[in-house]
Design a protein that fits this description.
homotetramer; alpha/beta; Alpha-Beta Plaits; seven-stranded mixed beta sheet; 8 helices; about 35% helix
């Protein structure tokens, strides 16, 4: 049996205050829930508190709704927001791509084999290229071309797909388009982008060519929540790969693909396992 | 101010049972202690529970002894053992070495600059070579030669040094001698050895030469608690370093030095920060 | 243009002797070939010499056959064996699998997108499970079940596939069957296996479960040429991944998949780019 | 016997042209020198050629001067610059520091134990703090304070130390002062600085604090040749270390120390082993 096949997750955050851990753990005890893993962190500099608990309920017929309803008042005393996630939950997801297929291919593989607890509802792209890949996986593919003139309209259709599919997470798997402020705001905290550099180094276009010009000996990738400030959203994961003088820009592009895939899928896994907490411009990540 | 300059650490373990987290966190709340960081883990396969809490006490005149005394009964209900560590505590340590000085040098540097919260009380060696290094750092150096005939006697003197200095931790920083079962038992859970291989691969002598013969592409080091079963004690940390065909055995020895130092000092830091829990033949490590 | 789109590769090895580099480089100069990258290594302990040269020919109509014919006598003076590889060469390959699909999926992706200069001619398996994956990529799939009684016969059919497809390399992408000595010998130096441990640690079956029992803090994978001595063939690449106490055996299995894929595909890339030289029980690898 | 105890190094570079490898290897053959390891690289984009050869001479009484004199004309035909380095050569070095001692301590240890083939002639600092450390190692310590007003004068005295000691390499081991353009130029290609970030990210002061503000999940260090453009000199080595939300700026400073030491000492080793070639704003590094 997999480690988490029978455990629920309670993830919560609130302003720092005496009793923040106790309000969670005492309630779990009262509910006769058995805590199998717990992390909490209090950010001294910003005054934020974060807690993530995995627990086994007292019986198989445990009612998440009743638990939630009973906890909501206690949480309110601490201005605490929380999410309760049942075992086996698969988060509904929309993936956005452009022409590069490596991240999409990697996510589809992990999805198909059950390695990532997600439910891909649709793939959206401004190009038709990756349709066969999506179709082979039995997924709807929305080809929504974009031009400067049609951007607003295209984004409206993108948003429609997200809404209609009930996607709780949007993964920008090398989408290569800058989202409008409006769409960024709608997707705040639930859209993860992969940037092919170690942000904040090499922001903007063609980061591997920038890296080549600087003669760096390491290239990397950064998965981050999008926000209105391009390539500046809160970082979730970063990965790195050594390179040498013998790597021309096109070699850096090729070498970077693996680390982009790993960095993005890692960030998605952490997000859907409720291990990531967004707090101003930073994240708290309770990794295993 | 450093992250932990004003935080106490409570580390505890006991058999798995409902309420193990609550008994700790409820008490801390009652004592008006503010939890800044907490990890807990319940080992499903072995039925062991482990918790580590960093907290700020309600006032500067917080009395550790009173806290301890008040908690001991509650802990007993759960067969829970615990340790309470005050901020600024420096664990008394004896370091044992042979002729190789890289790990000793590294530990002394971290000790001298306050990076490791330890108090080195003595350096013990079966060779005289490293005395100047110890002396420059103002440390007593006990040269206790060993032969097959004098092993029991030598170990008795080693034990005497440990006892007299009040050492709570013994670091075998490339000591290169096998301790007797008797001494292993006395030091159970409080002696850390560095082995220059990725255990359980290449147990025994000259692991880098074994690694060369096998043509491996990675060499490594393992820091572990010693036990009666040579090179089989519970592993705390492991580190790794890529090597190539151009590395002869003596190059592997040289390349391995850095990773040995890092792996050992990391294990010592984790131990003295009470992040390591020993449980049968394995460890639970709550890293940051 | 990609780095190697117009470069030929000359890879050679012979016993150590004065003039081994010169015999290669002088010839290239005479042929007006421009060396873009060269590595040579002389193994002091075993007395073997290895050289790999990438070069641009003087004109687009460069004749590999003529070059080969002209060099063969000079090479013979040094008992030198060599291979000349034209730009754009794709090595014919047969992949053998069992039920686990992660390595196959990874290789197919790299093949389909041109990242690996291979030409997959067939997929062979003792199970039917992965046929759809092969078929979607337009590849013949040979389901050749095996039992202790039919092993010889099954291997004969495997060998037939290898022969008929003209495969120069066989990739055991988690095939999970031990090949007979006879087949190992036939495939000497041209069959690469991925083992899911840091060999020589955890040889044999269920290495992740062995790793869990030992409480290691790193798991890894090893790609190696097969030979008659199970899990002891010459190592090409090794990869590693940190794990923790919170990873149960099934988590180690899951965590290991990525490093298995990367380690195997890296080994295949090195092999087909003629960067690996086999020499007794070890390899010389001229990585970029 | 160590790998390089009896091998000479010939390192050369010149503009790309047919015959650049041959001019070196033919000469070595004529001189009956046995090549044990060779790397060459031709940079397609910039048109530069680089070669590094380790060789064993035909006899113990091999005359470097005669070799050099005989090769100089041939090299001239190719506008080739070259350096010949005898086995056992220890490059004379001056180390410059400020108050932080970790890099100095690390370099002194490697120097003292013969791991780095350097001869430290002096330690220069704008502060008195590290004098005892230098003195224990038997090294002259020049305390040369600096103020905006006295900068020119101080640099003149620094230069005097470099000149008088015959230093061929200056190591800025966290010197924390910006050198004048004039001094940078004098030290072009022979002064290595360690910057505590993954350049070009986080240039300038307090990079760990910048990194904290950005919420990065990796911190790093960069060793580079200094040039007139602050923190923009050609990169030799880069290292990286994972960090988490629980690392405050002072924790990043602490965590970064190890990677700074390793990155700097690695760069120094590569430089003194003649593995680094400077070419415009980039380096070619022939690592093992």
């Amino acid at each position: 049996m997999s480690r988490t096949a029978d455990t629920w997750i309670l993830a919560a955050q609130c302003p720092s205050r005496l009793g923040t851990v106790d309000v969670v753990t005492r309630f779990l005890k009262e509910q006769r829930c058995y805590i199998t893993e717990q992390h909490s962190f209090d950010d001294r500099l910003s005054g934020g508190f974060f807690i993530r608990t995995e627990f086994r309920p007292p019986a198989a017929d445990f009612e998440g709704e009743a638990f939630r309803a009973a906890f909501v008042d206690r949480a309110a005393e601490f201005d605490m927001t929380f999410e309760l996630t049942a075992p086996g939950t698969r988060m509904p997801v929309v993936i956005m791509v452009s022409k590069a297929d490596h991240c999409l291919n990697d996510l589809l593989y992990r999805y198909r084999t059950g390695q990532l607890p997600i439910e891909i509802r649709a793939v959206v792209s401004n190009h038709p290229d990756l349709e066969p890949l999506a179709v082979w996986h039995g997924l709807p593919y929305h080809h929504l071309p974009i031009t400067p003139e049609t951007k607003a309209e295209q984004e409206a259709r993108v948003w429609q797909v997200i809404e209609e599919t009930g996607a709780e997470l949007v993964i920008l798997a090398r989408y290569m388009q800058v989202l409008s402020s409006d769409l960024c705001e709608k997707l705040s905290g639930r859209a993860i982008n992969i940037h092919h550099s170690l942000l904040p180094g090499f922001k903007g276009a063609r980061p591997y060519h920038q890296a080549y010009d600087k003669g760096v000996k390491l290239v990397g990738a950064t998965a981050h929540y999008i926000n209105d400030d391009l390539d500046e959203g809160p970082i979730i994961t970063q990965g790195v790969e050594p390179v040498s003088h013998a790597d021309y820009p096109e070699d850096l592009v090729a070498k970077g693909r693996d680390i982009e895939c790993l960095t993005l899928s890692r960030a998605v896994a952490l997000h859907v396992e409720r291990r990531v907490f967004l707090h101003a411009s930073r994240t708290v990540v309770f990794d295993r």
